[in-house]
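Incident log entry.

Two folding requests arrived from the same account within the same minute. Monitoring flagged them as a possible duplicate submission, but the sequences differ. Recording both here for audit purposes.

Request one:
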Amino acid sequence: MKKAEKIFFVENLTQELKTAKSVVLINYQGLSVKSQQELKRRLKEVGAKMLVVKNTLLKRAGEAARVSPEILQDEILSGQTALVVGEDDAIAPVQILGTFAKEYEVPKLKVGVIDGAFQDSESLLKISTLPSRDVLLGQVLGVLLSPSYGLVGTLEGNMQKLIYILKSKGGE
């Protein structure tokens, strides 16, 4: 890249980092071109994208976007680093990465920022195993409604007993 292209690239990357709901750094070493294309396709389905970025350019863009300094450490920005940026959903791209890593044994999750909070690789692995947002909302709704279902069942049971007693008394 020429110097002018690098400056333009860093400015664009800075804007993406500022508006992203989640940013995850991965080590994509060992990922074939075909596998990369498959991963990019899956990420695109959830409104995320994977960018292969030079570590120095990522560091500049991250500093300009005021990304968490834990991400920009030299130990993390070493080797083959790709950036996964989630624009719509913060968790879905991490779940895709986790599933993909189980299937292909690559990429390796390095670190990330999800909804403004720094996450190390262990946290990212835990997040990747969470159910989807819709499933979690359904579970919460079920927990909230279960007491009312129990109450309705109890009241219906008593009503049925009353009707049974009245029928048995009326038939005599």
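Request two (distinct sequence, not a duplicate):
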Amino acid sequence: MKRHRVLVVEDDAAIRQGIVDTLGFAGYDVLSAGNGDDGMRMAVRGGYELLLLDLVLPGHSGLEILAEVRTSRPTTPVIILSALGDERNRVKGLTLGADDYVVKPFSVKELMARIEAVLRRSPERPSDVTQVAIPGAVVDLKRGEVRFDKGGTADLSEREMELLRYLSGHRGRALSRDEILRRVWRLDPDNIETRTIDMHVARLREKLGDDPAQPHIIMTVRGKGYKFAPR
């Protein structure tokens, strides 16, 4: 059975060690960092499936790390662990893309339940798609490169790769803008303008050679959103 790997970024040594021990006993592989600078470096580098993130850290703050992770690794699940439990901070963390927010002090049982719930939801984000075939080209999602049959390439940004990965992983299904914001951007659609989806789709179509007037790869579904249905 696959062992999930969790990155814990927490400056309180006792809390950090308690989480590491609990996760290890439960069968998880664990990475940890005790400050924001190490946490930022490890979070951006990847190699884990879930990030447990304190907000108040020496060096980079937890919110700075969260913002960078959402830019560089937009589908990675993140749970905030913080003593800042007021509504303003919870809303801010969730709006920036955290999957859950656990207020200190918390019980081990509560934390493990939250971790298991977030990891159960994470398969909704297709991550095993490495190549996508489209008419006239192949997209390498590991390298972020579109290779055209007639020669030439186009580079995709990390966000464009994640968007295409999600669309292609749900081939033929109409995906709403709200769903895409939640599953790819990990943002609450009530707190952000969904026009950002349209702009990213437009750029992605351009790089894939998809005619915006008569798209044949990423279709617009009127009143809904978009559908990946190459023809």
